[in-house]
Amino acid sequence: MPEPFKTFFNPGTIAMIGANLAAHSPAFDRARFEALAGEGLEALELKARAAQITRALDACLPPDFGPACDLMLAALAPADAAEEGPGIRGWAVMPMADLVALRGQGDFDRAMEVLAEMTRRFSAEFAVRPFILADPERAMGHMMRWTGHADWRVRRLASEGSRPRLPWGMRLAPFVADPAPLMPLLGRLRDDASEDVRRSVANSLNDIAKDHPDLVAGIARDWLAGAPPERRRLVRHACRSLVKAGHRPTLEALGFGEAALRLERLDLASPVVAFGEALEFVARLRSEDGGPQEIVLDYAIHHRKANGGTSAKVFKWRQLSLAPGETLELARRHPIRRITTRVYHDGAH
Fold it and tell me: At 284, which CATH number?
């Protein structure tokens, strides 16, 4: 079993941070930092560990924001260095970025510059969000400039850091309500050379789709006009939730109209499925269209809830082409097993 994320913040990580900071400042009290950062660490989860390290940095770094930033930047590993070697990199950068968020509101522009540099070692997508909430227009000015940065990690910070509903991150309520300020930024990055950046753009649009589905359907239609293959993939990924929801304008934008389709048969291997086994079924479909059809085929399971009711969950299945009058038989095996996002309850589903 893989180690839980919280173990990234361990005594060795704390010692590494302390050693690199002390190497650039004899005044840095490494022993005090390590004692504060490591106190009761074993009982803490990921975010609590990161927060404790941030508080230790706050207590031990120079009290003025500028000198504190200078020291943290000096202690970073080179941006394109190998995994081994001197300097702070990876998860260890996260508490430092959080310190910038904690202290940096009074020196907004410097703080944004520091986060752009830190993100080249570990994403500052969480730390940048308090600045967006404090001054959206000013923050977006920085992020628009980042879209032209030579380093893809900084360009990705522009799109990922401004996602309205970033998992684990504070929600950007102004952009949930009105995502219009994000559109120029996402448009600049839609054809980025980096797949990571393009996927981040898609994820931002998927966030927006939860509150503004028709807007995203319109963007999909516009972006698909004369689109290269990479942008087409981006749009499909951006629209994944809307496709699962059967949002008609999105399906039409992607080239899927009203399906002329008959479900001729749906057979279950067994009406009873034990936990740990799989629901197996076969569907027989017939096209009733006079021409060829492009079909998106999903299925929904109405899971039993604790109160005895049911709640539907849509699962992706196939995208396929059907000739006029063609019949197709498809089989599916759906595991019923323990997952972190669902609790199964006995009874009819």
Answer: 2.60.40
Nearest one of 104, 178, 181, 170 to 144, comparing CA atoms: 181
Is 312 buried (19+), middle (13-18) or exposed (0-12) by CB count in 10 A? exposed
- Tens-place pLDDT, residues 52-88: 999 999 999 999 999 999 999 999 999 987 677 789 9
Report yes or no: 171 and 160 within 8 Å, Cβ to Cβ: no
Residue 285 zone, left/alpha/beta (φ > 0; ψ -120 to 50; rest)? beta
Task: Provide CB contacts within 8 A for 279, sequence distance 6+.
Answer: 268, 269, 273, 301, 333, 334, 336
Per residue in 230-267, pLDDT (tens digit) is 999 999 999 999 998 889 999 989 888 777 788 888 88
Task: Give the domain-ending residue among 71, 101, 127.
Answer: 127
DSSP state of 290: S
pLDDT for res 163: 98
pTM of the model: 0.84
Task: Give me the number of domains the chain comprises.
Answer: 2
